[in-house]
Every structure is written in structure tokens, then in C-alpha cells.
């Protein structure tokens, strides 16, 4: 029984069957990659996991609880954090503040009226955020305006914001999309480091095979909204079904 | 000090000093000089400065921090005024219960209006608040006449019960508003040489309330709550996926700023106990938006500066007329004098809106951060000059 169990999920947009009977099980403390060609339903599936979309049928269980019908912030409070395709950070705030906000969310829940005590008195939160930044080698940039960070650093910051919440499951939506090779390699190194150092389950949606094969313990191939195969990386490469889906070859 | 860091404490002290010494600062010209009409140090106007300052500070908590642009904040000001006047009619002429009631009622109004309006963001939110404010205005103007006294406005009468006070004073007139006996309209004049300074009890009550309001605003700005509000403005999507529910945060900010508006309305009625529907009109809502943007949205001191500036223009520029201009330009040859006056004419008197409009455009185009940004640029200019000078003197030394 995995930490995330997706069973019989269907999602239709008008005449388009975006997801058809998707079953997926992500085991704890593994990196599970979901790959597939454009339009395979990868992003739709992710959006069903985080509460942005609600599947027409089927169930999504996280840690024994259903996530369906819950709002994104509630799902995050259950222990799922997500990284966006283009880094989503609080651009008007400093780097340190960016990391402090998820700390508050973790400690105080979805809403707490703490309007009088100054932020500078929240020593524990500040320390925790700083430690996280040090972990990701960003401590020297803590007072920078986060909008002025480089793209790679923005990705790193977004990662810090997710990791500081100590999520049980981290969802990554094409973390290397649109990146140069060097940046991609940096991101791979960062993710490998995270995987080794922390007890964390990651679910990666990715286009780039290089990324997938260097990180994943388990791979699910989606095509036209349906899982084609689920297997270990070494078995995926030679699988004729996968080659067909990707390259359009006839077996 | 007061749980603030050094920079904020300095800011608070400077604002405190400026407001408490305002009767001097705003009256720089001798009473009988030609420039005396630029003096703004009379109680009525000074009260308006600080009351609209409170209104703008509160508005800035919503607009400056969360970025939600409300076009209906005058409704809360109006509601506050009506509540205060009813308190004067029914309970007593003491301003404390009146102000408390105006804050509470305005807060409740804001809760209802905010709950509905905050279901949408951006332009739709603005339109919803505008619609609510116009509905309130229409209600106050006609439908709810028994409560608001319609277009005449709500006034005190000799027949009012005033349970804890008297319906009429010994000499048969309507009692005046007071703070435990200190009458709001009482004032003392201080004459030093050709200068005359007026110290009004009402102004100082308003000024102290504004300082408290300003202090609370600083605390809110620097708190985790304030940080969340800034995060909402910056990236609401990220906030939702970070486990925070943005709705109660925005609603809390909306209610707080509505309560500030109610406080301003209550104070307004405490200084002059009448309330009219025109206080709720959309132009009044627009005015506070202008004040905040002119001064600098999202900054602490900006809204107060903006409020002061607009009220100064409204009261001082509107009083300049052609005769005054002829007086100033009397030294010019006749033809040129008339021409100059004719050119300036549209910008003064009733045309003060034109001057304000041009000024507003200039600020928005060249100083998007408002007057505060202007101040910062001037400061930077000076410090840079100083720095380059220091560099030069340092550079010279090794050569010697």
C-alpha cells in the first residue's frame, strides 16, 4: 500500500478523455516519475492530486485519506507540497520571508490572526528558515529581493519553500522545463541530494528522459490519458510499448 | 521602543512630533501678511488632515498590503458617522461611546460586504465594493430616511433623549460633543508677535487617535499577518499551495480597514455632530484611493502625506481667486498681468481639481511609489553626492 493511491481516475473535458482509468501507487520514500508525450494527461493528473481539478470518477487517497473535494491549501496541510513548472515564489518579498511563510503555514495552520507581534520576534521560525536556506546554499542571498534571483535560484528557493514544510510527498511539475543543460544538471544534483538526505517521497512529472533516468526509482508511462506501463527505469528503456508511444513506431 | 525596531520608532516619533506641533508648523506666515491664506493651522482643517489620515492608513492596510482595490470604503466612513450621531442623540455627548459604536458597526458592515466581495478579485472585487457603496448611499439618501434623515442629513435636536446626558443645556441650546467634559470645539489662541496659533481640543483628540491608529498600522505591517497580506499581493497562487487560506486573511484585512474608516467617520461626527449621505458617495471612495496612491501605496507614511496634500489643496488652493492673483502680479505691466491671471485662472478656485489632477498624473507617471518615493530619491541624491565627495577626498590622500 503506497502513500499515494490513485484508483480508477477519469477526467473528461467536453469530448476529450484527458484521463481514462488511471491507477497509480506511489510507495513511501521513493522517487516516482510520470512520463509521457505531450497531451498524455500528466498535468491533468497532477492537478487532480493537488485539488485544482476534481476527477469525474475514481479515488485519490493520500496516507489513507481522500484528497478529493479538498482545496489546495487543505491538501498542502495534509502533507503534499508542489513545485511548479515555472517557479512560483513571492517575488515582492525577501528570500528569507519566502521561506518563513511556509514555516508559519506548517506551525499555525491555514489561518491565524497574529497581527501584533513583530516578525522579528519569531526566532524559531526565522532559525528554521535560515537553516533550510543554508542547506540549499542560499543563506548569503537571504535578504535579496526574490524577484531579482536567477532562474536557477528561484527554482532552488521554491524547493526550499516546499522542503521546509517537511512534506510527506513532494510533487514536481517538469522541474527542468525550459532550462539549459547546465541548469538541468544542477537541478538533478539538487534533487539527488534531497533524496539522499531526507525521508521524502517525490513524484516527478517530466519530459526530459535524462532527468527521469537519473532520479526515478519507478516510472509510470502515460499515453493518451492511460497508464501504459509501470516499471523500474532499466526495464522502461527497452520496452517496445514505450518506444511506440514516444516515437510512433509500430511494433 | 514600543516593540518596534529603530527605524519604525524614529518614524513614529517624527510623525508624533509633526502632528503635535502641527498648529505651529502649518501656520508659518504672520496673520496679517499676504501669505496668511496659505496657513493651514486652523482647527477645522487640521482635524480633517488627521481624520482623513486615519481613513487612508486603514485603506492602505487593505490596498497597500493585499493589493485588493476597494472602491467603496466611503460607505464605512458614512456608517461610522451615522452611528456616532445616533449615539449623541440617544446616549450622551461623550465621544467615547460614539466612536466605539462607529468602529463596531463599520466593522460589522465590512464583514458582510467583504464576505461577499472577496469571492472575486481584481476588477470584479472593485466593482462589487463600488456597487455595495452605491447601494448604501442610495439607502441612506432615500430608503432609510427614518434612520438617516435622508438628504437633509442626520442632526442633533433639542428633543433627543440623551439618556446619560441632557436634552438641552441650561440656556436652551443643543449640548456640544465632549470627552469627559472637555469640549471638542474649545480652543486657545497663542499670539506671538504677528503670529497667532490656535490649539484646539478637538484637533488634539483626533491627533492622538491618529497616532494610535498609525502605531497599530506599523505593528500590523511588521507582523506575520502583514507578511501574509504582502504574500497575497505578490502571489496568491503560491500562497494557496503553501497551505494558507487566503480568504480569511483578506477578509480580516478588509474588516480592519473598514474599522479604520468607521473610526474616521466617528471622529468626523465627534468634531461636528452631523452626518449626511454624501459622505458615502463614490467620489468620497475615490478620494481615499487617490490619497493612498498619491502618498505611496504600501508605505507606512504615504497615505498620511497623501491625505494631507489633497485636503490642503482642497481647502487652500480653492480659496485663491482672481483678486488674489491680481494682488500677486500687480508688479507686472497691465496687459501681461491680465494675461498671466487668465492663464492661471483655470487652475485655482473652483479649478483646484485641475491642479490636483495634473499633480496626480505627474506623480503616477514619474513617481509610481508616490510622494514617499520622491522623498527617497531626494535622500539618495544627497547621500550619493556626499559619498562621491568622500570618495574624492579618500582618493586624494594617497597622492599626497
From TrEMBL, chain A:
The keyword Iron does not apply. Residues 4-249 form the ABC transporter domain. SUPFAM superfamilies: P-loop containing nucleoside triphosphate hydrolases. One of its GO terms (cellular component) is plasma membrane. Keywords: ATP-binding, Nucleotide-binding, Transport. InterPro entries: AAA+_ATPase, ABC_AA/LPS_Transport, ABC_transporter-like_ATP-bd, P-loop_NTPase. One of its GO terms (molecular function) is ATP binding. SMART domains: AAA (SM00382). Coiled coil: none annotated. This is Branched-chain amino acid transport system ATP-binding protein.
TrEMBL record, chain B:
It is a multi-pass membrane protein. The keyword Transmembrane applies. GO terms for molecular function: branched-chain amino acid transmembrane transporter activity. This is ABC-type branched-chain amino acid transport system, permease component. GO terms for cellular component: plasma membrane. InterPro entries: ABC_transp_permease, LivM-like. Keywords: Cell membrane, Membrane, Transmembrane, Transmembrane helix. Pfam families: BPD_transp_2. It is found in: Cell membrane. The chain crosses the membrane at residues 12-29, 49-71, 91-116, 123-144, 201-221, 248-268, 288-313, 325-348, 354-375.
